[in-house]
Amino acid sequence: MQQEEQWSSKLGFVLASAGSAIGLGAIWKLPYVTGVSGGGAFILLFLLFSVLIGFPLLLGEFIIGRSTGKEAVSAYKEIAPGSKWHWIGYLGVFTCFLLLSFYSVIGGWIVQYLFYGVTGMMGSFAGGYEGLFTEAVSNPVAAVAAQGAFLLLTILVVAKGVQNGIEKMNKIMMPALFILFIVLIVRSLTLDNAMEGVSFFLYPDFSNITSESVLFAMGQSFFSLSVGVSVMVTYSSYLSKKESLVQPAVSVVGVNLFISILAGLAIFPAVFSLGFEPAEGPGLLFIVLPSVFDQIMFGKVFLFLFLALFLFATLTSAFSMLEIVVAALTKNKGGGSRGSRSKAAWLTGLGIFLVGIPSALSYSVLGDATIFGKTIFDSADFLVSNILMPVGALLISIFVSYKMKKDILRNEIIQGSKELNGLFTLWYLLMRYVVPAVIVVVFLNVVGVI
């Protein structure tokens, strides 16, 4: 049975999927992971993983969802009844739950920045923007309250459903964010010594690459495209059978890579020009970009607009994470009646909030609590990005290429154009042999087996 929830158009589906993929992955995480992982060489690996591994996986998740018209868990059950393969769906639900628990903490930081901007307090902290970021993450009450506020916004939109909530918001957020990014880049590239930052970001120096950097690049490609957690299975289940899957997949990957490059070009020239360290860590974007806006006429106004749009971009990813859990909980109601969807969104959001509190306190009262030498926040990030997502991606690649009927796969891909037969052959070879092999080799290399 097809989902009762539906995207009103292919554009709505593309923008929602791109919004899920972009969010913090491209704007917040990629720059700081690039900074600590060697710059241009890491970016090159990220691009290769995104195109050769991420794109086939994204298309595979689209096929699973659209061919069944069901959310993640039910989709796997329908394709492989009586087996354990539906646990891939449960793994995705769990991963999204855990991911949103620490993702909402970063969303809370943005909420705090907006609050400081509205109240005029942003420039009142000792140590400038570094002091501002320290205050945002180290004040336990403010960090937890802001995390809760971010989750509240997420719940309110997801509770309204696909067309009325997620789709409408994305049609406004994505174009506006792109425009403001262009303004940022123009100013950042015209700063003194900006080309040093461009060189660091785009010139591949492989002497800085380690096996862990390769794992991070692969994990980042999964994180930024939202693959490996079956989010795109659920999103594509809301897409009409008449629409092509290839075009949205290409659009999502293309937009994600484009925004990723824009984020790097906005941040790294300013990092080198203004004397910051590229390996600043999770606070890189929150410290550097406000400093760039200080160099622009009406910078405070532009900074507020950017923070608002950055919050929107962050919310688009949060919507998808909460949506996969809500869809799983309401699966017996064809996507959920309004009442059941709302109840599921609120209960799930509360659970995520409680689980995320330790991550919110990782830079204050739980700062000394570590797991394998990492803070609770960093441990949750590492577990999701570099273990759960790659494992989920490996299982999805095996499921699609070995459990699904080849005719179904071909029909889904060539929908709308018979000329895509050649693409199907290439995609099938990548999914069946290359994707699982690369994921396994990267893991074995990191643990020292090879």
TrEMBL record:
It is found in: Membrane. Its main location: membrane. Keywords: Membrane, Transmembrane, Transmembrane helix, Transport. It comes from the Bacteria. The keyword Membrane applies. It is a multi-pass membrane protein. The chain crosses the membrane at residues 12-30, 42-64, 85-116, 136-159, 171-190, 214-238, 250-276, 296-324, 344-363, 383-402, 423-447. This is NSS family neurotransmitter:Na+ symporter. It comes from Sutcliffiella tianshenii.
